[in-house]
Amino acid sequence: MIDAILASALTLSVPLVFAALGGAIHRQAGVVNIGLEAHMITGAFIGALLSGWTGSWIVGTIAGVVAGAITGGIMSLLITRLHGNEIIVGLGFNIVTFGVIGYLLRSVFGVSGTLQPEGLERLPSLVIPGVADVPVLGAIVSGKDPLFWLAILAVPVLVWLFAHTRWGLRLRATGASEPASASLGLRTAGIRDGAGIIAGALAALGGVALSLGTVGLFNENMTAGRGYVALAAFYFGRSRPLPTALACLLFGFFDALQIRIQTSGGFSADIVSTLPYVAVVVVLAITGIRQYARSSRKIA
Amino acid sequence: MSVTATHTAPVEPEPTDPGAGRMTRLLEAVRNVAVHAGVPVLLALVIGGIVLAATGANPFAVYGRLATEAFGSPSRINATLAATTPILFTGIAAAFAYRAGAFTVGVEGSFVLGGLTASVIGSQMGGVPGPIAIVVTLAAAVLAGGLVALVPALLRSLWNVDEVVTTLMFNFIVAGLAGWLVQSFFLAPGQANSSTEYVAESAELPPLAPPGQTNVGLIVALLVLVGYFLWMRYTTIGYEFRAVGSAPRFSTAQGLRVRTVIATGLIGAGLIGGLGGGAHALGVVHRYSEGFSASFGFTGIAIALLARFNPIGILVGAILFGALNAAGATVQLFINLPVQLIDILEGTVMIFAVATFVLPRFLTRRRRLQRGGAA
């Protein structure tokens, strides 16, 4: 029982981790990315499509990531160059992307909502001999797909990138104060575009993890608000990689628990689904009140 | 990292020249709105046209068909006005908050909870005389809508907590809450999908031109629109709304009631959104079921931005989107056109409504030189 819940919590967290880390990067650069949902569904769609055409999960994954980078770049240009409000552009971008994919599914592929490309190759699951039979540990580390391990790897890499590279410093400087960074000669719009492209690519990788990892087909509702949960996660983790990933794990655990409880009956999945969002409001409230208290002390 | 608060409206309100006469001022406002709204709408049509052409459809034929389906006959106009009603409410709600510089995306949540409340209370109104049933039910819906906005409003006005994210989160919280409430308490017996019982006949809003769906809700929405206009133009707090919305720091320095204004803006948007949900429940669908709101709250955002908070602009924008929704629903029956085209158009309008189109630098410089030479 606990094995199964842990294993499925980890699996369910992978798409969230990618999307949330992407959002965290973008947030560090000073942009709240509401379009994660759009980039995820793009990655899931293109990934499934290309994996189906070529019969290779590697090609599918790469194509999905590239598509996400493109949508992330377009969305970022609308924000940085045309000065569109990031929230409205993000919401609008989600609506347009889901519209385009839904439209294509019906007019080109002739299906209503679900696409099962023939010859689609799913992500391989890596069974680790020896560990696979160990209780709990086996369920946690064995039989996972490559993206699971990539998600784990991404956290320390991102911590290092933020702290020790020129890119990380410039990114954070842009987010902390755009005018100050610009006065130092940083091309802040360009830095933000870069962050937007990475955010799109990472979120799309999360989408690939859904379509090629978990289920092996594409459904137009398969992201099911995960982009917004990812948003909740990086707010919860205050855009730092490790806390953000841990928040994803927590939300993934809720999700797994809710699926488990739902099948055995009794508890409401609807209420559990609101927990990430309630958590964000609470976190925002606490940080906001703290900050307010601090700044009013300073004035006094 | 700090939590940032959005202090200014997402777009500049349409400027009005105080020195001009009333008639020229009105014309000026209409011209401004037309310019601001024309570009996004045109771009949306172009992008939609590209998608259409890429999939082998003739954009002009499709747009022509959409126009006929929206306005081609009295019954189609009726359908368009019915589709206009809910988004007229959400558009006014969004504009109300934005004018005060409070940037809510939570009207969707208010609309949903207002609709659920109206459905539940309306279903208990059997035997109560019509006007009383309707007023009581709508009042409850209004309160429910305001309740959704209460926490973000308090957080924002008391401690400066960013209202954009909290209101967005409350949409999801309300969606989950509504699903749970319906599933565990208000499920109509014998229903496969989760929906409440139908409201009592006495609580239904009467249709204006039966058998069409346009109902008294449209009149209520128009009254709210007039109220919005009067509030902004002739009341003291309305004046403060405009001041705080365009210059929050200056307003603080001037001793305007910035906190009150922002809380009023957010809660007011919730109240209006709740009324919209209630009117939609009583007038059109007569019960709450999953998918009650077809993203009406988000369409309202697009309308408010397109109109730059101008009342006439809001009405025109609501009719435009209402026409799209009504026509989109029937057009797919006649020509094999996925209804998602409407989402593409709507989302594009939303994006470009907040984009600023700057003339290339050499053009602006030349224009400045010309102007300088003439003076």
Descriptive report:
The complex is a heterodimer of chains A (300) and B (375). Chain A is an all-alpha fold and 300 residues long. Chain A has one domain. In chain A, 76% of the residues lie in helices and 1% in strands. Chain A has twelve helices and two strands; from the N terminus they run H-H-H-H-E-H-H-H-H-H-E-H-H-H. Chain A has a two-stranded antiparallel sheet with strand order 1-2. In chain A, helix 1 runs parallel beside helix 6 and helix 2 packs antiparallel against helix 3. Chain B has 14 helices and no strands. Chain B has helices at residues 22-54, 59-71, 74-99, 107-122, 130-159, 163-186, 216-234, 236-246, 248-253, 258-285, 296-307, 311-334, 340-354, 361-374. Chain B is mainly alpha-helical. The N and C termini of chain B lie far apart (50 Å).
What is this structure, in a nutshell?
The complex is a heterodimer of chains A (about 300) and B (about 375). Chain A is mostly helical and about 300 residues long.
Keywords summarizing the entry:
heterodimer, A: 300 residues, mainly alpha, two-stranded antiparallel sheet, 2 strands, globular, B: 375 residues, 14 helices, disordered N terminus, cell membrane (chain A), transmembrane helix (chain A)
Percentage of residues in strands of chain A: under 5%
Strand content of chain B: under 5%
The largest inter-chain interface, given as chain pair and residues per side, is: A-B, 54 and 60 residues
Q: What is the oligomeric state here?
A: heterodimer
Sketch the topology of chain A as an H/E string, one letter per element. HHHHEHHHHHEHHH
Record field, number of beta strands of chain A? 2
- The backbone outline of chain A, from C-alpha atoms, is globular
Determine the number of helices of chain B (DSSP H or I, runs of at least 4 residues): 14
List the helices and strands of chain B in order: HHHHHHHHHHHHHH
Termini of chain A, distance in Å? 56 Å
Q: What's the Cα radius of gyration of chain A?
A: 20 Å
* Total of DSSP H or I helical runs spanning 4+ residues of chain A: 12
Low-confidence stretches of chain A: none
The main β sheet of chain A shows up as: 2 strands, antiparallel
Total domain count of chain A: 1
Rounded average pLDDT of chain B: 85
